[in-house]
Amino acid sequence: MKPKVAFICVHNSCRSQMAEALGKLFAADTFEAYSAGTELKDNINQDAVRIIRDLYDIDMNEKHKSKLLKDLPKVDIVIKMGCNVVCPFVLSKHTEDWGLDDPSGKSDEEFIRTAKTIEEKVKDLAKRIINKEIEL
C-alpha cells in the first residue's frame, strides 16, 4: 500500500496546494498526496493556479480547494511547507519541514522558483520512500 503524504501549511491555499498537485503529477506511483491547513480560504491562490497551469499543464481550480487538517485521512508522512508561525501538528510516522517562503503577493519569478523547488523536493521524497530511507 502506498504511503499517504500530507502537505500542510496554515491556509492551504498556495504552497501546500502546489505540493499536492506536483505530488500527484510526479509521485503518484509512490505515494498518495494530500494537502490541508488550519484555516480555510475561499479560493486557492490564483497566481499559484496560473503558474502551475503554465509550467505543468495542471488546472488546480478543477480539483483543488482549501481543506482543513480534520479533512485528511490518516497519513504516514507530514510535510510542513514552512509556516513562519507554529506549524499545525498532525500525527504521522515521519515529519519534515521544507521551510519554503510563501510567494503570495510576490512576483511570478518567486512563484516559479517555489514551484520548481517543490518539484525537486517531491521527486526527492519519492526517491527516499522507494529507497526505504524514511521509516514507515
Q: What is the topology, as strand order, of the major beta sheet?
A: 2-1-3-4
CATH structural fold name = Rossmann fold
Coarse shape: globular
Order of helices and strands: EHEHHEEH
What fraction, in percent, of the residue positions are helical? 25-40%
**Could you give the count of β-strands?**
4
CATH architecture: 3-Layer(aba) Sandwich
Structurally, the number of domains stands at 1
| Unreliably modeled segments | none
Number of helices: 4
Strand content: 5-15%
The first-level CATH class name: Alpha Beta
Structural class: alpha/beta
Largest sheet: 4 strands, parallel
The gist of it:
With 136 residues, the protein is of the alpha/beta class.
Key words describing this protein structure:
alpha/beta, single chain, 136 residues, 4 helices, Rossmann fold, 4 strands
Q: Helices, strands, pairings?
A:
Blueprint: E1 4-8, H1 15-26, E2 32-36, H2 46-56, H3 60-63, E3 77-80, E4 94-97, H4 108-130
Helix pairs in contact: 1-2, 1-4, 2-4
Outline the structure in words.
This protein has 136 residues and is α/β, with parallel strands linked by helices. The protein has a single domain, classed as Response regulator (Rossmann fold, 3-Layer(aba) Sandwich), CATH 3.40.50. Helices cover 37% and strands 13% of the residues. The chain is built from four helices and four strands. Strands 2-1-3-4 form a four-stranded parallel beta sheet, covered by helices on one side. Strand 1 (4-8), helix 1 and strand 2 form a beta-alpha-beta unit. Helix 1 (15-26) runs parallel beside helix 2, helix 1 (15-26) crosses helix 4 (108-130) and helix 2 packs across helix 4 (108-130). The longest helix has 23 residues, at 108-130. The N and C termini lie close together (11 Å). The model has no long low-confidence stretch (mean pLDDT 94). Residues 3-128 form the Phosphotyrosine protein phosphatase I domain. Keywords: Arsenical resistance, Plasmid. This is Arsenate reductase, arsC, protein-tyrosine-phosphatase family enzyme. InterPro entries: Ptyr_pPase, Ptyr_pPase_sf. Pfam families: LMWPc.
